[in-house]
Specification:
mainly alpha; single chain; about 90 residues
Length: about 90
């Protein structure tokens, strides 16, 4: 459109990334970032960049924390495929 100003280039598309951390950890992380005059997001983004660019051998704390991964089980698994097409319907 003629005469309409455009803002700065927004850069590549982004995705929102939410994580849950304890209130205490959030407070300590915020204090750390404030003390170093950096944003919490910039610290996390830099760490993620270092991981995906292979600047780090393995994630920090990888050996220290052994978390269970939730395994999803289909609640309808037991009844799936009980009906046969052409026979039951």
């Amino acid at each position: 459109m003629a005469g309409k100003k455009r803002g700065p280039d927004p850069g590549p598309p982004t995705k929102l990334f939410n994580i849950r951390i304890t209130v205490d950890l959030h407070k300590r992380f915020k204090t750390y970032c404030d003390r170093h005059d950096v944003s919490m997001a910039s610290v996390l983004l830099r760490y993620i960049e270092m991981l995906v660019n292979k600047d780090l051998e393995e994630p920090i704390g990888h050996q220290e924390v052994q978390r269970k991964k939730a395994e999803w089980k289909d609640p309808l698994d037991m009844i799936r495929n009980q009906y046969k097409e052409g026979k039951d319907f």
